[in-house]
Amino acid sequence: MEERRQRLRVSCWWVVVILLSWLTEQISAQLRYSVQEETHVGSSVGNVAKDLGLDVTTLKDRMFRVVPGPNHDLFQLNQNNGVLYVGKPMDREELYNGASACLINLKIVVESPLEIHYITVEITDVNDHSPTFPESEQQLQTAENVPPGTRFQIHAARDPDVGAHSVQIYKLNLNDFFDIEIRDSEDDKVPFLVVKKPLDREHKAEHRLVLKALDGGHPVKSGSLNLTVTVVDVNDNSPVFSKDTYITSLKENAPVGTPVITVNATDLDEGLNSEIEYTFGKTQNKKVQNTFELDNITGQIRVKGNVDFEDTEIYRLNLQASDKGQPPRTTESRVVIKIKDVNDNKPNIDVTSLLKVVLEDSKSGTAISLISITDRDSGVNGKVICAISGDVPFDLTPSIEENMYSLVTKSGLDRETVAYYDITITATDCGEPPLSAVKTLRVEVSDVNDNRPDFSHSPLELYLIENNAPGASIFSVSAFDKDQNENAAIFYHLKRGDALQGDMTTFLNINSDSGNIVSLRSFDFETLKSFQFQVVATDCGTPSLSSNVTVNVFILDQNDNPPVIFYPVSANGSAEGVEEIPRNVNAGHLVTKVRAYDADIGYNGWLLFSLQELTDHSLFALDRYTGQIRTLRSFTETDEAEHKLVILVKDNGNVSLSATATVTVKLKRTIM
Prior knowledge:
The protein is mainly beta.
């Protein structure tokens, strides 16, 4: 009885399973579409309304739509015609990575009356991926005594595509020692490298192979893996560095002993075969070994010598880690040390002179020198700002090339004001703190004949005493020229007239070099009292410049003329005269007046009169200034009837000159 019940329960269970399976099949198989990945957005998948037998004209009223769900936004439903179309780009590998089939189950709802329809859309694969290996190169090591048939697993290639579009086959390049063998796993085809014939490390220690993975697409796509098989001795594990390449940085000028980096390698072997010693590579250059030292036990790298960024910006250290097996096994790594720049170099100023001297009439913008600025530092530490110090008529003009300048004039020059300039150029970099360099450049200003000779006074006055000796120097003129050398060399000449009467330059001569003036004749004040002439001073520049000065000559009187008495004068011209006066004249009576003349002037022509001889001092008196002779008293009967007076006339020169005259006074008797 119990056994019968058990059989009945089993039968019922199977009926339920069959029924559920049939229902599921009916539901899932209601509609099924297929569309390729990467199909353009908007492309039609199928007409759902038509395939479900719905009336298209009633779709708008019945709210025909897709129920939201996972990845349902990949498809959109047209309310007007019931067409299901691609709503967004599709990538099968992203949606179902690794799955053999990519199915999107959609639920379609039609309202009034409510209907639910199930639609399955399969996104089919396109061969849009090539097989790829995890790495582009794989290193293999094998002992030289391994027997033929030994296998080495190779990295399997991966292809996100499925089916025939996935990896189908591996091919190894033709060689004498190795072959490829494929084993199928649940997901992949795994390649194995198989030794075909005995290996001989001494004959060939390294084998380079190329393994290709090919898919089954049309056209075929492939990927490559470079295989390097190193044949070693029985010590079958090599040390392995923790990194293939170590990268670190170090500031320049780091002190000796500064730790830089510590490398580390491990060996899976035991005993001596796992004890590791670090060394520089055999090809490591001496410069690296002089700059850094390597602790062969700890793997620490320290500064050994001078670290200068300007000398070397990057060091590449080739390191080896060797075990102590017999024979030892070695592996290599690289340490890249990037040197950081420190602002430890001042700018350098290099001057290339184009002109040793610059003409004072040079135009603005005339190039004097080329200034080149260099700084061995880099970045902002090597960026330099250049400027001129002080207020000078020069400027720096940047060139097209960086850090190149032209030193040019920016305003007019005047050698007579400033004969040379000491130009201080300062170059400052932009480092922190900034460093500067200073260079002083002397620029000499060359003379141009731009100044005329100049006389200290104009006009000049010459006072010349008459009776000068002919041929003797009477005067010297001198002019000054602010220019230099031949532009300042001066020669003199007289500006001659037209040789007419009154041109005194015919009696003068001048030394063209010294400006010394000589008179060719003697001057007489009584004939010529003043005259003027012009002296021209001309420099030796090209073209020459000149100026002139007027010399006013004043002849000074010399006491060279004696007084001339013109009264009294006798008939024979001698200075004698006879005056008759009545005997009864009273005291003070003007007897006569002695008249005299002197051609000289001033004191030289100032005459004084005196009585040199007189017969009776009580009778007559002479006015010393006017020359008048008057009686001092009345005459008596006893006085002589004739009196002789000798008159002395002299001038007031330093050496006075004189003349005498004789006046005879006769007393005539008065008739009663």
